[in-house]
Amino acid sequence: MRYVLTFLRLCLLRAVACKRIVVVGGTHGNEYTGVYLVKALLATPALDNVEPFLANTRAIALNRRFCDEDLNRCFSRARLDTPRDTVEAARAAEIDAALGPKGSPAAADLVVDLHTTTANMGTTIIVDAWCPFALRCAAYVQARLAGVRILFNDIRDKAASPYLASVGADALQIEVGPTPQGLVRADVVAATRAALEAVVEFATLDGDDVALPETVMAFSTAGSHAKLAWPVDADGFPTAVVHEALQDRDWAPLAAGDGLFRTFDGAEVPYDGSLGDPVYPIFINEAGYYYASSGRGIGLAKKLTLRVPRRGAAACEAAD
């Protein structure tokens, strides 16, 4: 029996070796956890079949989210095909050529993009509706690691996805917070590494014999610009702060009448319920969302139950 198991393991490793798994850090140049882990993998490879990749190298050197525009909004097919004179547009073309091209059979099998947030999000696996593999993987990670949440972007057209990871045949993002920008914390590195290791483990095992739940609870959003925008002045600087009762309460329900912002003079701006009741605020006071090109404001999601797709399914679907 021992020899049979050894033979099967060797067969699995050979199959996995055919996969190209790219782990990306520094898509946002001041999110140093991903940069740290990619540099660690470059210095001391610790995960088989993983190719480390640094994304926005110019912004990393400057300790800035981006130079001209948010790189993680540059990967829809339309934007890739529209020339723009920005640092990020040029880098997006290089990344698409290196890891894609997007939609091509030559693209990397899986792109995992590592992010951090200043918001109290914990460990979150972000998947797009066009990628059933990502939802299967997220369900696996959630079952393995306590406290992991799934954020489901209801983007069903891969070509329309603006995110860097979408250049891969399959794609997901790992988001961990809270942590300040431009520094490295041991606990956030450890949480990100644990999620990444679980993702790579699943990518090596993916099959219908992998034990997965039939359904998962997820938080659904229309994407990066589905936000409650805070008021700003002519310079784009906020003229209100996140309400003290809302701060750090990511994933908690928000109902009509609950405090949303406080203005300069201390007046409360309540949530008006226009986008549903309840909704679930996410990325509350995320520093990156002070930028217009990243989509200003507080993210909003709805809670839903998703059917975990079978291997090879064409799309993700809500449970009946």
TrEMBL record:
Binds 1 zinc ion per subunit. The active site is at residue 175. It comes from the Eukaryota. Its cofactor is Zn(2+). Zn(2+) binds at residues 28, 31, 115. Keywords: Hydrolase, Metal-binding, Zinc. Belongs to the AspA/AstE family. Aspartoacylase subfamily. This is Uncharacterized protein.
